[in-house]
Amino acid sequence: MSQVRQTRLDQEVSHEKDCPVSRLFGIILRSRHRPGCPDVPGWDVAGPGRLPPGTFDLGTHLPSYILGTVPEGNGTALDGGRVYFFDVKGAGAVTADPFNLLVWKFNSAKDSVRLYTHQDHLSADGLADTDFEAQDVMEYSVWGCNGGDNACKTKAEWTLLSDVTAFANVASGKPTYTFAGTEPTTIYRGGSGGFGLLNAYTRDYTFGAPHNYYGMRTSTISALANDADPELDAVVAFNRQDFPPPCPPGGCPDGKVPGPSTLVLLASGLAAIGAGALKRGK
């Protein structure tokens, strides 16, 4: 794993009126979307100028693949449901036994992954301004594995790619975090058009090597808070070369996270993922 990276928050205002952003060194954090902020181009694979089919691999959720997990939602589909399990608590939990993960298998190895979160403790204003909320919205460590069918069932096959080890600036309602390993390239704080803040703090990662299995268990900060029940809605994998970060240098002018049309599962179709983006500048 790479060395721990610690982050600080400096406030800025975007060039779009009433579309505030916060800058975390080279990373742009957007809070809630406000009326009048233009839309980011969608992830839809249909229609002219869109990305080609297959850019985003929705994968297959494998419930209870290593040990038992709870599939209250589909896991493979973005449906507002959740899959979760109760993990080990306390110091050292991220690598402790019994070893278990929420597991997704993808059609081919990809170097990037998006975690569509499921938030059940975030307050209605979307501000993570208590210690419990601050750890709960970042309750995931990310693991990678490569293998064929029925592979990646033992701890020895998996590599820990990213963990959240500390947080600060809680009173602001927009905490900053310390990561061990790979930090997210983009964090979407504001939720989705389809499910609102239920999907808040959805995040993208790009790793140094591709994997065709990705798994998640508790993060260090959640294990130390005696929470340790990672909950996710869905997971999507892609290659970063096929999909550059969704915002230009300086941040998204719109504050919205788009979602692939193939994730449409509601009768009326899934709206583009809404407010919030955290973006690393180039």
Which key terms come to mind for this protein?
about 280 residues; 2 helices; 14-stranded antiparallel β-sheet; mainly beta
Give a quick rundown of the structure.
The chain has helices at 131-136, 220-224, and strands at residues 10-12, 21-24, 27-30, 60-62, 70-71, 83-84, 102-117, 141-145, 159-168, 176-181, 186-188, 202-217, 231-238, 278-280.
Cα-based radius of gyration, to the nearest Å: 17 Å
Span between N and C termini?
A: 23 Å
Structural class: mainly beta
> Averaging pLDDT over every residue, what do you get?
74
Helical amount among residues, as a percent range? Answer: under 10%
Summed up, the domain count is 1
Helix-strand pattern:
EEEEEEEHEEEEEHEE
DSSP helical segment count:
2
Largest sheet: 14 strands, antiparallel
Shape: globular
Q: Give the DSSP E fraction (strand runs of 2 or more residues).
A: 25-35%
What ranges have pLDDT less than 50 throughout 5 or more consecutive residues? Answer: 1-49, 249-282
For the secondary structure, the number of strands is 14
Write up what this structure looks like.
Helix content is 4%, strand content 30%. It is mainly beta. It has 2 helices and 14 strands; from the N terminus they run βββββββαβββββαββ. The chain is globular. Mean pLDDT is 74; it is low at 1-49 and 249-282. It has one domain (44-244).
Topology:
Layout: E1 10-12, E2 21-24, E3 27-30, E4 60-62, E5 70-71, E6 83-84, E7 102-117, H1 131-136, E8 141-145, E9 159-168, E10 176-181, E11 186-188, E12 202-217, H2 220-224, E13 231-238, E14 278-280
Antiparallel strand pairs: 1-2, 2-3, 3-14, 4-7, 5-6, 6-13, 7-12, 7-13, 8-9, 8-12, 9-10, 11-12, 11-14
